[in-house]
Amino acid sequence: MTVRFSAVKAPASFKKAAAWALPYWTRGEAGRETPQDLFRVLYFGWLAAFTLKVLGSAWDVSWHFKWLRDDLAPPHLLNSAGTALAVALTVIHGYTGYGVDKAALRLIQWGTGIFLVAVPLDLINHRVNGLDITSWSPSHIMLYVGTLFMIAGVVRGWFMGAPPGRERVVVLGAFLAFFLENVHFPEQHQEYGILSLGAWDNHATYAEQILLQFAADQMGRPIDRIMMAGFTLPVPDFLYPVYAVVAGLSVLVAARLLIGRFGAATLVAAGYVGFRAAMWPLLTFTGFPPSAVPFFLVVAGLLVDLAFLVRMPLLRAVLGAAVVTAVAYGTLAAQSAVMGPVYGAIKGQEGLLGAPPLATSSAGWAGLGLLAAWLAIELVVGRRQLRPRTIEPSVPPVTAPATP
Question: Where is the signal peptide (predicted)?
C-alpha cells in the first residue's frame, strides 16, 4: 500500500487577503496617509478584538461567583483571544504608521503595554494571596487602566481618520460603548454580589461549595452570612454610586461631545445596558449567577443629552466672558440638572429590580466629582479642538489587487 503525501493548499480567500495586505507591510511613521479600505479593515479588527474581550469579561465575573478561579478558564481564554488580536493590531499600527496619528498610537501602545504587564502581576497576586475576592484589587485596576488607554487611542484614531457619514457615527458610538463597559466593569462585583447575598438570605447559594469553603478559609471564618457579605460586597457602600456617577457619566459626557448629536449619550448607554440585558438570560439559563443590570445608566444618558440642551443657551448668554467662565456656567447648570435624578434612578432600581446598596450621604461627593470631571472634559475637548479629518483614498501599491 502506497501512502502519498500532498502539500496542504491555503484557501484561495486567504491567499487573496495576503496578496492584498502584504504590500502595505512597510515601515512608516504615525500619521501616514492611509488608504480607506485598509483603514476600515484595521478598525473593524479593533471592533472584533473588543467584542471578544467584552464577551470574555462578561462571562468571567459570573464564572468567579460560581467556581474557584482557574487561569485557563474558558472566559479567560476568550478574553485572551481578543487581547492577542489587539496586540497584533498594535504592532501593525506601530510598524506601518497606518490608521493612527502620534497621539492615538501612543495611547494604544501605552494601554497595550500596561495591560500586558498587569496580566503576570495579576497571576502572581493570585498565587501569593489566594482568592482575590474583589474587582477593585491593584492588579485588576491595572488591567482596566490599560484597556482604557487602549480604547481611548482607538477612539481618537477613528475620530480623526474616518470620513463623515453614518458609518463613522455608528462605529464611534460602538467604541464609546466599549469604553463605558470597561469603565463600569469593576462595579459588576457589587451587581453580582448583591443578588448572591440575597440568594443566601433566601437559603440558596449560587457558588459551588469549594469556592465558599476557600473564601471562608481565607477569611478565617465559617461559611456564614458575615463571610458571604465579605465575599459578595467587600467594598464600602458609597463606592458604587459615586463611581457610577463620576466615571460612568464622564464617559457619556465625552460621547455626547465627540459624536455631537442629541441622543448620543443615551444610545451609548443603551448599547452597553442592552448587551448586559442580553447576557443575563444567556448566563442564568446555563446555570451561572445573575447580576443586577445598571438600567439607571440609560436614564443617566438621557439626562446628559437633555443637560446639553440646557447648557447651550447658558453658554451663549455668557459668551462675552472668558471661555473658562462660560464653560463653567454651562457645566454647572448641566451637572446640577443630572445629579439628583441619577441618584433617584439608582434608588428606584434598588427597590424595583435590584441594585447594590445606595449610600445617599455620598451624593455630595458624587456631585462634586462629576462637576470637576465634566468641566475637565469640556475644557480638554474644546482646547484641543478635535476635528475629524477625511482621509482621501490613496492609490494602493501597484502590486496590490484593486479589491480584497
Answer: none
Which residue type sits at 114?
I
293 neighbors 191 (Cβ within 8 angstroms): yes
**What's the length of the chain?**
404
**Cβ burial 324-337 (10 Å sphere, 16+ → b, else e):** eebbbbbbebbbeb
Split at pLDDT 50, 70, 90, the class of 399 is: very low
pTM: 0.83
pLDDT at 9: 47
Beta carbons within 8 Å of 164's beta carbon, 6+ residues apart: 388, 390
Structure-model confidence comparison of residues 392 and 379, the more confident one? 379
User: What does the pLDDT read at residue 265?
Assistant: 94
Q: How far is CA 136 from CA 30, 37, 40, 58, 292, in A?
A: 35, 40, 35, 16, 18
- Partners of 98 in the beta sheet? 32
Number of DSSP helices (H) and strands (E) in the chain, helices first: 15, 0
Cα-based distances in Å from 121 to 77, 79, 139, 142, 147: 17, 17, 6, 9, 15
How far apart CA 179 and CA 19 sit, in angstroms, is 34
**What is the rounded CA–CA span in Å between residue 90 and residue 111?**
10
Which positions ≥6 away from 45 have C-beta within 8 Å?
85, 89
Angle CA(387)–CA(168)–CA(161) in degrees, nearest 5?
45
Each residue's pLDDT tens digit, 314-324: 444 443 333 43
Pairwise CA distance, residues 184 & 132, whole Å: 19
Question: Rounded CA gap, 341 and 329, in Å?
Answer: 20
- DSSP lists the bridge partners of residue 32 as 98
- All three cell numbers of 118, joined, read 498587569
Question: Are 212 and 373 in contact, with CB atoms under 8 Å apart?
Answer: no
The string of pLDDT tens digits covering residues 36-75 is 999 999 999 999 999 999 998 888 888 777 777 666 678 7
- Percent of the chain predicted with pLDDT > 90: 32
Closest CA to 108 of 45, 18, 188, 35: 45
